[in-house]
């Protein structure tokens, strides 16, 4: 494999031969023999025969993908968009075997670093192990002496060309190693204050410049010099821990393709303290470019930093991702033409977890680990979680010992020590799209799978539907974290399409193979219902009907159930116009299957959506006739033969039981006259006028083709009128709307009107409603400003006499309603109103009378109409209410109605009127008061009025008097005898009219109660007057009591 990336294959996982290179075990065995050996508890990791780096699993259960017997758990929501297994997780067997080989001694592995083809691992004994691309131990840097002096390795960094390794130690020292020779180049002991551990040491893109961060929270720049063969290191403090402890640093390191990016000249460095983020430039001079405070978060949350070059609007610039807690922030860093660094906030990413590790795996995808050691792959643009894995079994190494600086006495702040509980900075290393995770007993590598591998993982588990869904997302360019698809979109679609064809064949073969051979037919049908529609759907999406109708169908017909499910599944796609043409064999099978299973409605829906060239016309027409598939029959005649008349000829005799066909015929005629195809679409433009004329000629035929001697004239119009007069006239009305300057059409219009009058007038076969409907239709046509129709006006008078005939008691309501509609049309239809009113009264058409009285504003006469009409007598109260409450009526008109209602001769009306009044038929209670007052106090009608329900009405008035006219209250109580004492007392008490209450109590015989009420009133008045007297004395005013001669004794 290429040396630029640690790409693993099967061969790389063989345990390397260690005859020549030293093993960690051999190195550690050189230490004191008296120390007790370390016994590995879980020895199964050594069983490398069971490890398979390329096995895969995308289920939400356990996965053997890593080759790790502990199985990482993958979770995927199958209801969401299918992403498959996004990450390839592999156990680094060679490195893990070397780690396990240290069983002779309690060695702890604290950190890992990977660059290009090198992985470096630090240990608790101060050793740095360097592995090559074959996972062979190439170098073991450090000795027993340095380990004892410096303590554990606490930080590692490899420069970009893999020539140098920096090691930071728990006791504060830093060493630099030559990775080519394994030679120690520098030992730095004075780069930062003593007594603090190195938390981070990192190269920048400049090989002579590095930075380090110690447990005191300070950050230092390390500048490496070599003068006359002498190596040195100059240290400069960039940030003092006394101003806020920094616990994470991340220099911007450009990948090889962006080494010449203008931003690299600034040597940008991101630093995360416990309270804020800082971005500074080390070159050309030290400068702070940005500070960003955290939002409120858990004090134990670990700050994270990660740089990535990201294409944004056709340019590539670095983005800094940082977080502390559950929110990831993104800052776009861009160099302006003026040389200024501009930092732009981007959309945040909110997660419901505490993040302890943050890494980019490519320019669109982040990999996060939370405090529960759940790994999440997140697509940054959509903020969608693509995959979740459980890393608990990896047993990540944490850096708590170094954050607490235990090797130097634990002299760190409580805040930094708290953050260190979850710090695993040195256990995760990313480079070139790969992540290495260091566990206590093993090392693991993660990388994005290429698109084929993700699909194959699903196929391996026989998840064909998910595999097709994922493949289609690759085809359409909507998939996330895509690796391995290059070239122009057309070529990419071709490559993915070929893969999908393979999957379709595999899915079909699998379905046939797994079909239950015995059992209920419903089980077999359900089995294929889960498969066949998917096959059809993706064949249509790929525009491969040839594949569907030939190879796939030829395999499915071998199973009768599969064949039936396939043919039935076509319906939804045909009706949705996704499939418009069937091959002749398929069409033949579809007709036979639908006809044989009684699926005639489905067959008709399919036929009217299919291209007629795919139909066997003779066969289809025969099936349609036999099964009364009128829509399909019309469609076939229209589309295949341009014959629009034959369907009407054979359908123009609908019986009462054939309502469906009659309705279809009316709609069909309407469509033909409007230029629309039936049941859907449009008639070809070159045929629109021809079809319209053909339909008119059909309608006005004097006789049918095979007429008998007794056939009446104009049979087609006559039939349609008898079937549904109103709807047929509506069809004509809509058609006439389109007749403007078409001379031929206007002639047809007049001809049809003449025929209608000839057929319907003076014809006892038509009801008054039908005749009235005709004249209403004609009245509306004549009322149009551009009307060209001619109709004899005497016919309307004839219709009026017909409808108002007093000798005909049949269809009374129907005849009145028809005449009312005719009058409401107005326009050219003018009748003598006096004659019309006389006819209406004689025929007891009270609605007609109301219509005429309304025009003359004779509202009192309208009340008489309601009273005389037995069907509408109860509606009079709504009428009165609307007239009294609504604007538009003058006070004089309302007074006339009011007087009419209060007339002595209308006692029964008034009774009901007042009851309705009680239930708020008027606008307000004040209106109710006015009406009741007018009733009870008008001249000659006070206490003597004898009305039904007098008690209720008097008590209602009593309450209204309390509210609106208390000065009349005592007079009303003294003169009226039609109220109940108990109810009246409650009413006056409710409104606090004490004099009236006392009067009622005395009338009831409760003299003591009446006296008590009056005494309470007197006391309140006395207290009020005394208060006024005191106020008067204070203000120097004359005595109120004196001026009014009150007797206060």
TrEMBL record:
TM spans (from-to): 909-937
Keyword rRNA-binding recorded: no
Keywords attached to this entry: Membrane, Transmembrane, Transmembrane helix, WD repeat
Occurrences of domain Vacuolar protein sorting-associated protein 8 central (ranges): 565-736
GO biological process, one term: protein targeting to vacuole
Annotated WD repeat ranges: 146-187
InterPro entries membership: Vps41/Vps8, Vps8_central_dom, WD40/YVTN_repeat-like_dom_sf, WD40_repeat_dom_sf, WD40_rpt
Gene3D superfamilies given in the database record: YVTN repeat-like/Quinoprotein amine dehydrogenase
SUPFAM superfamilies: WD40 repeat-like
Residue runs in coiled coils: none
GO annotation, cellular component aspect: CORVET complex; early endosome; HOPS complex; late endosome
Family: Belongs to the VPS8 family.
Protein's UniProt name: VPS8 subunit of CORVET complex
Organism: Sander lucioperca
Lineage: Eukaryota, Metazoa, Chordata, Craniata, Vertebrata
């Amino acid at each position: 494999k290429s040396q630029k990336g640690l790409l693993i294959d099967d061969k790389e996982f063989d345990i390397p031969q260690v005859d020549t290179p030293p093993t960690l075990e051999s190195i550690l065995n050189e230490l004191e023999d008296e120390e007790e050996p370390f016994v590995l508890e879980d020895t199964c990791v050594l069983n490398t025969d069971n490890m398979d780096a390329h096995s895969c699993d995308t289920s939400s259960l356990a996965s053997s993908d890593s080759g790790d017997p502990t199985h990482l758990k993958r979770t995927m929501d199958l209801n969401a968009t299918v992403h498959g297994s996004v990450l390839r997780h592999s156990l680094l067997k060679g490195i893990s075997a070397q780690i396990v080989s240290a069983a002779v001694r309690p060695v702890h592995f604290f950190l890992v670093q990977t660059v290009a083809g090198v992985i470096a691992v630090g240990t608790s004994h101060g050793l740095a192990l360097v592995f090559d691309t074959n996972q062979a131990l190439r170098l073991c840097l450090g000795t027993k002496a340095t380990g004892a002096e410096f303590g554990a390795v606490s930080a590692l960094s490899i420069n970009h060309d893999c020539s140098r390794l920096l090691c930071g130690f728990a006791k504060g020292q830093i060493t630099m190693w030559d990775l080519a020779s394994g030679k120690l180049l520098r030992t730095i002991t004075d780069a930062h204050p003593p007594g603090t551990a190195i938390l981070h040491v990192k190269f920048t893109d400049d090989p002579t410049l590095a930075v380090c961060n110690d447990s005191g929270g300070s950050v230092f720049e390390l500048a490496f010099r070599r003068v006359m063969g002498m190596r040195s290191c100059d240290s400069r403090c960039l940030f003092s821990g006394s101003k806020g402890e920094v616990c994470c640093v991340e220099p911007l390191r450009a990948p090889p393709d962006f080494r010449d990016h203008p931003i690299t000249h600034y040597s940008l460095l991101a630093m995360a303290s416990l309270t804020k983020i800082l971005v500074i430039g080390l070159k050309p001079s030290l400068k702070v470019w940005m500070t960003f405070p955290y939002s409120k978060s858990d004090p134990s949350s670990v700050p994270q930093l990660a740089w990535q070059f990201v294409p944004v609007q056709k340019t590539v610039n670095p983005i800094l991702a940082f977080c502390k807690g559950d929110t990831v922030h993104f800052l776009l860093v861009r160099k302006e033409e003026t040389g200024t660094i501009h930092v732009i906030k981007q959309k945040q990413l909110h997660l419901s977890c505490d993040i302890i590790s943050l890494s980019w795996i490519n320019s669109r995808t982040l990999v996060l680990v939370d405090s529960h050691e759940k790994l999440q792959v997140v697509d940054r643009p959509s903020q969608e979680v693509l995959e979740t894995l459980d890393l608990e079994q990896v047993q990540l190494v944490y850096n708590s010992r170094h954050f607490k600086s235990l090797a130097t006495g634990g002299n760190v702040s409580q805040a930094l020590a708290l953050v260190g509980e979850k710090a695993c900075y040195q256990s995760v290393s990313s480079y070139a799209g790969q992540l290495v995770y260091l566990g206590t007993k093993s090392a693991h590598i993660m990388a994005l799978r290429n698109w084929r591998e993700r699909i194959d993982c699903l196929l391996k588990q026989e998840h064909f539907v998910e595999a097709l869904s994922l493949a289609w997302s690759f085809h359409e360019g909507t998939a996330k974290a895509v690796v391995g698809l290059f070239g122009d979109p057309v070529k990419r679609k071709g490559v993915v399409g070929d893969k999908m064809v393979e999957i379709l064949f595999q899915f079909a073969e699998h379905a046939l193979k797994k079909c239950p051979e015995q059992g209920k037919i419903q089980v077999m049908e359900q089995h294929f219902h889960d498969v066949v529609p998917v096959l059809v759907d993706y064949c249509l999406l790929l525009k491969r009907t040839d594949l569907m109708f030939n190879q796939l169908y030829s395999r499915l017909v071998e199973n009768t159930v599969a064949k039936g499910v396939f043919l039935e599944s076509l319906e939804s796609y045909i009706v949705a116009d996704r499939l418009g043409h069937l091959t002749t064999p398929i069409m033949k099978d579809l007709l036979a299957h639908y006809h044989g299973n009684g699926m005639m409605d489905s067959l008709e829906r399919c036929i009217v959506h299919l291209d007629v060239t795919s139909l066997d016309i003779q066969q289809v027409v025969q099936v349609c006739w036999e099964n009364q598939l009128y829509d399909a029959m019309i469609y076939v005649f229209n589309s295949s033969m341009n014959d629009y008349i034959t369907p009407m000829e054979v359908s123009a005799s609908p019986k009462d039981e054939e309502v469906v066909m009659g309705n279809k015929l009316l709609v069909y005629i309407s469509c033909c006259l409007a230029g629309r195809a039936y049941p859907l679409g449009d008639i070809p433009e070159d045929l629109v006028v021809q079809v319209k004329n053909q339909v008119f000629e059909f309608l006005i035929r004097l006789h049918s083709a095979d007429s008998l001697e007794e056939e009446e004239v104009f049979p087609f119009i006559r039939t349609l009128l008898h079937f549904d007069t109103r709807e047929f006239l509506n069809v004509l009305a809509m058609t006439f709307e389109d007749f403007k300057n078409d001379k031929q059409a206007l002639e047809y219009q007049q001809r049809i009107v003449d025929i209608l009058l000839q057929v319907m007038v003076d014809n006892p076969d038509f009801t008054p409603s039908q005749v009235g409907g005709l004249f209403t239709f004609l009245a509306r046509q004549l009322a149009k400003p551009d009307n060209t129709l001619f109709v004899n006006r005497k016919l309307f008078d004839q219709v009026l006499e017909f409808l108002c005939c007093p000798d005909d008691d049949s269809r009374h309501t129907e005849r009145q309603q028809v005449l009312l509609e005719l009058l409401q049309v107005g326009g050219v239809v003018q009748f003598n109103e006096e004659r019309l009113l006389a006819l209406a009264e004689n025929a007891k058409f009270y609605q007609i009378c109301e219509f005429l009285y309304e025009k003359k504003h004779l509202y009192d006469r309208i009340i008489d109409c309601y009273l005389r009409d037995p069907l509408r007598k109860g509606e009079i109260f709504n009428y009165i209410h609307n007239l009294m409450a609504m604007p538009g009526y003058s006070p004089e008109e309302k007074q006339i109605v009011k007087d009419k209602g209060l007339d002595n001769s209308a006692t029964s009306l008034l009774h009901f009127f007042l009851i309705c009044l009680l239930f708020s038929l008027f606008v307000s209670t004040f209106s109710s008061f006015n009406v009741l007052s007018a009733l009870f106090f008008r001249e000659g009608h006070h206490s003597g009025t004898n009305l039904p329900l007098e008690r209720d009405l008097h008590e209602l008035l009593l309450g209204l008097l309390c509210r609106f006219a208390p000065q009349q209250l005592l007079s009303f109580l003294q003169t009226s005898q039609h109220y109940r004492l108990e109810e009246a007392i409650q009413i006056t008490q409710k409104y606090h009219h004490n004099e009236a209450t006392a009067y009622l109590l005395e009338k009831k015989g409760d003299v003591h109660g009446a006296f008590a009420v009056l005494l309470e009133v007197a006391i309140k008045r006395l207290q009020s007057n005394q208060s006024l007297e005191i106020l008067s004395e204070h203000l120097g005013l004359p005595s109120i009591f004196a001026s009014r001669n009150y007797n206060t004794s």
